[in-house]
Amino acid sequence: MGIVTTNTDKYQMCIDECSKCAQACYECFKACLNEADVAERKNCISTLIECAQMCQMSVAHMSMEAKHAKEHCKLCATICDMCSKECEMFKDEHCQKCAQVCKKCAEECNKMS
């Protein structure tokens, strides 16, 4: 499952979910910027970026088996949960889908920690 080694196989599900979550958050970020009520989405938009970047860092930490990967994943789960709640407040399809992806990522990150 790893790309060049099998050392990270134990992390692969979480790596995949974090990668997917980062992509979902960036896509949702872009879609939110184009919504008529963008001003009301200010907190959600900033949370989307924080979540996406945290997920990207989690992928990096797990891929290199960093010393604090598990602690990082715990914080990532917290941020993904927060992002999911923010997205759930908006009823458009992209936010609802993003909320689901964030929840799944938080579940995987919690398994890691």
UniProtKB/TrEMBL annotation:
InterPro entries: Csp_YhjQ, YHJQ-like. Pfam families: Csp. CDD domains: DUF326. It comes from the Bacteria. This is Ferredoxin.
